[in-house]
Specification:
This protein is α+β, with helices and mostly antiparallel strands and 501 residues long. The structure holds serine and zinc ion (ZN).
C-alpha cells in the first residue's frame, strides 16, 4: 500500500480572504484535471483553507500520481487563475508536512535512517515524515530518490556478508610449483623492493621494476597491439562529476585518495605557513588547512571513467567502430586499510586499462579475441595455473552489491591464480589478477555517447601489473633460470641492481 498525505502552503502576493467561495470551484476543477489523469493515476485535494495571503491545501493520494509531482502544475494553474482575475501572484510553495506511507520489499534487519526525513518502520510498512520542504527540493526529485534509497538500504542488509556470485568458466591443468614462498617478502629480503614511504606503497628497485615493465610489454605486444588497440594518455586527477556519472562517488567514497588545491597560489597568503615551517621544521598542519580548498577531485581509481568522459556527447563515426584504446599512464590509488598485503593488495598500483566501444556483436567478438590472447599469455608465456569465472560485474562490486547469474552477454570475468604460499589449491584463496567486462550501454548512456547508426555498448579490462607479477613470481619463483621459456624470451637476465653495505 502506498499513501501520500501532503500539506502545502502557497504564499500569495495579496490577501485572498474574500475569495473563499471562488476557491471551491477552483479546487474542484483541479481535482478533475491536473490531479486526475485516469482511474489509477490520481490524487485529490481533500481540503483547503485560506488565511490572508496564504492558501493551504491538503492533498492525498493512494494512486500512482504522487502529490509532490503535482504541486508545480497546481502553482501554474493558480497563478493563471489569480493573475487573470485579480492580479495576484503566487510567490512560493512550501510543503509544511508530508507523510508518505509505502511498502518495503523486505522487513529491515537493523534500524534505518534517511536524510531530510524521520523514518518509522513497522514490519514492511515505512512512514517517511518530511517537514518544511522547499520548491527546489520538489523540483530536484529528492523525494522519489529518498523512497528508493530506503528500499535499497533494506535490500542491502540482506546481501551484506553473503557470498558474491561466482561461476567457473574454465580452469587450467595443475602445474608443478617451484616454491611456496611469498614473493614480496623474498624480494624485500633481496633488496628488489622497499616498502613505503606511505601505507600500501612500494619503491621498486631495478630488479622489480624490470619485471613489472616486462609485464607491460607482454600485455601490449601479445594482447593489445595485435588486436589494434591505440594508446591514449589521460589525466591522473579525476573531478567528482565524472565519478557522479559512473557511480563511483556513491559506491566507494571511503576508498578514494582525495585531491585538494591550494586556496591561492599567492606567496603572500602562504607567508605564515612558510614562517612556521622554517622556524619549527615541521609542517604546520593547522595553518595548512586554512590554505587549502575543499577537495573537488580524487586520484585515479580506475582508468575507464575518464576515457568515457573523453567521449562525452560525441558521435563516433561508424568507421571508427569498435573504438579500441588503452591508458597505461594513470596510476590507481585505493585506500585499502585492513586488506593490504605485499605487492598484490596495495594502495597504489600500475595497470593498463583497455576500453572498447562498439556494437553488441563487435564487443562479443572482441571478448572472444581478448580471451584467446590472454589465454595465450597465461598458458604459453607464463605457464600459469589459473582459472576464469563469471563474477558480479565490477561496477556492482564497487557499489558493494553481490549480483546474480543474470545475462552473460554482459558482465565481468575474473582471472584467478593459485598462490602456493597461501596454502593448498583447495583451501587457499586464489588471487584475482585480472578482469574483463562487457557492460552493455551503462556508461554509453551515462556519458551520452552516440554512433551515426549503431547502438553502442562498452566494456573494459583491468591488467594489473603488480597482480601479474605477484601471480607469476608466486608460482615460478625469483630465479630467472627456473622461469618458463616463453617468459625468458622477454626477460632472461635481471639488471645488476644496487648493493648496500
Ligand atoms: N574498471 C575496472 C575495475 O575497476 C577495470 O579496471 O575493476
Ligand atoms: Zn574499467
Amino acid at each position: 500500500m502506498m499513501r501520500f498525505e501532503l500539506q502545502a502552503r502557497f504564499a500569495l502576493s495579496d490577501d485572498i480572504s474574500e475569495l473563499s467561495s471562488q476557491f471551491e470551484s477552483f479546487i474542484a476543477a483541479m481535482n478533475d484535471s491536473i490531479l486526475k489523469k485516469d482511474a489509477e493515476k490520481f490524487a485529490f485535494i481533500e481540503r483547503f483553507s485560506i488565511e490572508k495571503t496564504t492558501l493551504s491545501l491538503f492533498i492525498i493520494s493512494e494512486g500512482t500520481l504522487r502529490p509532490h509531482n503535482t504541486l508545480l502544475q497546481i502553482k501554474n494553474a493558480l497563478s493563471k487563475e489569480l493573475g487573470k482575475t485579480h492580479r495576484i501572484g503566487v510567490r512560493d510553495i512550501t510543503i509544511t508536512t508530508y507523510r508518505i506511507f509505502f511498502d518495503l520489499p523486505l522487513k529491515p534487519l537493523k534500524q534505518i535512517s534517511i536524510p531530510f526525513a524521520d523514518l518509522i518502520i513497522h514490519d514492511t510498512q515505512a512512514t517517511m515524515l518530511l517537514s518544511d520542504v522547499s520548491e527546489e527540493f520538489l523540483r530536484k526529485n529528492y523525494i522519489d530518490r529518498m523512497m528508493n534509497r530506503v528500499k535499497e538500504k533494506v535490500e542491502s542488509q540482506y546481501y551484506e556478508g553473503k557470498a558474491e556470485f561466482w561461476k567457473l568458466i574454465w580452469k587450467s591443468e595443475e602445474k608443478p610449483t617451484v616454491w611456496d614462498k611469498d614473493p614480496t617478502e623474498e624480494m624485500e629480503r633481496l633488496g628488489w623492493l622497499k616498502q613505503g614511504p606511505t601505507k600500501g606503497k612500494w619503491f621498486y628497485r631495478p630488479e622489480a621494476t624490470v619485471i613489472l615493465k616486462t609485464m607491460e610489454t607482454i600485455a601490449i605486444q601479445e594482447v593489445l597491439s595485435p588486436l589494434g588497440f591505440q594508446e591514449v594518455i589521460e589525466s591522473h586527477i579525476k573531478p567528482f562529476d565524472i565519478w557522479l556519472k559512473t557511480g563511483h562517488m556513491e559506491g566507494m567514497p571511503y576508498e578514494f585518495y582525495y585531491v585538494t588545491e591550494p586556496r591561492t597560489r599567492d606567496a603572500k597568503d602562504w607567508e605564515r605557513f612558510i614562517d612556521l615551517t622554517k622556524i619549527t621544521k615541521e609542517v604546520p598542519v593547522e595553518e595548512l588547512k586554512k590554505n587549502l580548498s575543499v577537495p573537488t577531485a580524487g586520484l585515479c581509481y580506475a582508468q575507464c571513467p575518464m576515457i568515457y568522459w573523453s567521449f562525452k556527447g560525441k558521435t563516433i563515426a561508424e568507421k571508427s567502430l569498435p573504438v579500441l584504446i588503452y591508458d597505461k599512464t594513470a596510476i590507481s590509488a585505493r585506500y585499502e586499510s585492513g586488506g593490504r598485503h605485499g605487492i598484490e593488495r596495495v594502495d597504489e598500483f600500475h595497470r593498463i586499462e583497455p576500453v572498447y566501444i562498439g556494437t553488441r556483436e563487435q564487443l562479443l567478438r572482441l571478448r572472444d579475441e581478448l580471451l584467446k590472447r590472454y589465454k595465450h599469455v597465461f598458458n604459453d608465456i607464463f605457464d600459469l595455473e589459473w582459472q576464469m569465472a563469471w563474477v558480479t560485474p565490477w561496477y556492482l562490486q564497487q557499489a558493494g552489491k553481490i549480483g546474480d547469474e543474470g545475462s552473460q552477454d554482459t558482465g565481468t570475468i575474473d582471472f584467478e591464480a593459485y598462490m602456493p604460499y597461501r596454502g593448498t589449491r583447495k583451501e587457499s584463496e586464489w588471487l584475482e589478477f585480472q578482469n574483463l567486462s562487457v557492460l552493455g550501454d551503462k556508461y554509453i548512456t551515462a556519458f551520452n555517447i552516440k554512433a551515426q547508426k549503431s547502438k553502442l555498448w562498452s566494456g573494459c579490462s583491468g591488467i594489473g601489473l603488480q597482480r601479474w607479477a605477484a601471480v607469476f613470481l608466486a608460482q615460478k619463483g625469483l630465479n630467472p633460470k627456473q622461469w618458463p621459456e616463453g617468459f625468458k624470451k622477454y626477460l632472461e637476465n635481471l639488471p645488476p641492481g644496487i648493493r648496500f653495505l
